[in-house]
Amino acid sequence: MFGTLRFRLTALFLVVVLVFGLVSVVLAVRLFQDVTRGESVRELEREARGIAALYAESALRSSDEGASAPEFAAEKLELATGDTLFYVGASLFPGQQFGLTRIPRSALGDVQLARDEQVTFEFTPPEEKRPFLAAAQPVQLVEGTEPFGWLIVAKPVAELRAQWVTLLERLAIALSIGVLLAVILFWWLSRRLTEPVLALMRATDHVAAGRYDVEIPETRGSDEIALLSSRFRGMVEELAQAEKVKRSFLMSVSHELRTPLTAIRGHVEAIREGIVSEPDQVQASLDIVVAETDRLDRLVGDVLDLAKLQAHRFTVRHEEVDMGRVLDQAYGAFAEEARRREIHYALETNGEAPVIVSDGDRVLQVISNLLSNAFRWTPDGGRIELQLAVANGAMAVDVVDSGPGIPAEQHERIFDAFISQDANGTGLGLPIARELALALGGRVELDSEIGRGSRFRLVLPVVRASA
């Protein structure tokens, strides 16, 4: 569990939430400290200014009127403001303290009290163990004169700390609730994210075991997981199709190989057991053995060529190819069969045959395969034409026959391996022709109708030899 992607995603998300949460808490507490301290300092300054003015005014009035100082106790001011009052310096009212706690100037340590302005500072009063935040206001009967002393309004620093500690506790509770909700939410989200990955992993195990009928769940959306599922589904379908083609290919190859082997075995055993003993019969059996051996050799060669082409391991040479000579050679190879079967056989070239850069043997093989297919399906007395035309940087070699034609639904199927309606054919000629054409940078096209014959066209780019 701890090593799963789901747990690691949740843990990573939790760490990120915690880090950002803690940073936010620290910043919030720090900001709150600055704000509360600033507000407290401004409040102390206002109180110190007001109370000092109150005492100075009272002292000035009592001096002008020759009356006793007014009686108001500092305890009441402390109760009203909630702060503690101290006094440093000479007595405003000789013989009367009015509850003010007088402290020596030395109790302030290094704090420098100004004559005409307030000073804020922290100090620890005598007989106190806790620090205070204080504002000292000079007490002057007349502004600009030497002050009698300084009135100090102070509050314990612990009160400020209590405020942000309370805030910190509330933020900690909020952060804990937020983290808990985030964990629940992301655990659910991680399940939504990882479930398709787990399904793909299970499907991968099935595919690795050779089972391609696995179900891959549909994933909504267009994110990376959905694209991965779609691509994986397509890959499995292609693998299943390839497996089907491989089985079909192996079954077809086995069948095609077994047919000539069965014939060879039958005739050899007949000769060996004396069933065939007459010289003419023996010679006929040997002729059949030789023919079937040649057929077997062609079949094996065609299978190897097709396998190499489909695996893209077929080497194509680049050489100067005189298409006139190639066409003459291909045409001449079938001239005797055309004469024997009284087939109208013609070679037509539209202009001068070009010299191109290609693999001459493979070009000849493609054309020969197309001609062989034409002669296989053209009846005696029919017509076969071999044509060459060059236009728009491409060369087209057409093989036109007067055979029965091919239905439109069979136009692609006839280029599959071992698909042949001819009992004497292997069904590899056209597939090899198409694959060779692709390897040469061209293509094979088909135009055919039932009862009107067929036209197979080899199209190759005209890459002329450099001078």
Care to describe what's here?
The protein has three domains: 5-163; 224-310, Helix Hairpins (Orthogonal Bundle); 319-461, Heat Shock Protein 90. It has helices at residues 5-65, 74-81, 157-208, 224-272, 279-310, 323-333, 335-340, 360-377, 429-439, and strands at 84-89, 101-102, 119-123, 132-139, 149-156, 319-322, 344-349, 355-358, 383-391, 394-401, 443-449, 453-461. The radius of gyration is 53 Å and the shape is rod-shaped. It is built from nine helices and twelve strands. With 467 residues, it is an alpha+beta fold.
Keywords summarizing the entry:
53% helix, 12 strands, 467 residues, 3 domains, five-stranded mixed sheet, Heat Shock Protein 90, alpha+beta
Mean pLDDT: 78
Residue fraction in strands: 15-25%
Task: Note the total helix count.
Answer: 9
Low-confidence stretches: none
How many strands in all? Answer: 12
Element order, helices and strands? HHEEEEEHHHEHHEEHEEHEE
Q: Give the overall form.
A: rod-shaped
By helix and strand content, what is the structural category? alpha+beta
Question: In terms of topology, how is this protein built?
Answer:
Blueprint: H1 5-65, H2 74-81, E1 84-89, E2 101-102, E3 119-123, E4 132-139, E5 149-156, H3 157-208, H4 224-272, H5 279-310, E6 319-322, H6 323-333, H7 335-340, E7 344-349, E8 355-358, H8 360-377, E9 383-391, E10 394-401, H9 429-439, E11 443-449, E12 453-461
Parallel strand pairs: 1-2, 7-9
Antiparallel strand pairs: 1-5, 3-4, 4-5, 6-8, 9-10, 10-12, 11-12
